[in-house]
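User: Sequence in, structure out. Go.
Assistant: Echoing your sequence, followed by the structure tokens.
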Amino acid sequence: MVRADGPGGPYTTETAFLVGCDGAGSAVRSAAGIGFPGTGSSAHAWVADVTLDDPPRGS
């Protein structure tokens, strides 16, 4: 049984599987007391939010 708070308010559901996709440092998994037996991420990425003062024509 899963109890969750969604955009429409709290709800409860039953399911055979529950998948959490919030990463290796999962706050959800930590709160549930579930360990992470895998390895850390080997990927590195940059994220940027860019605004151009003079964007190219046709954009």
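User: And one key feature?
Assistant: The helical segments are 27-32.
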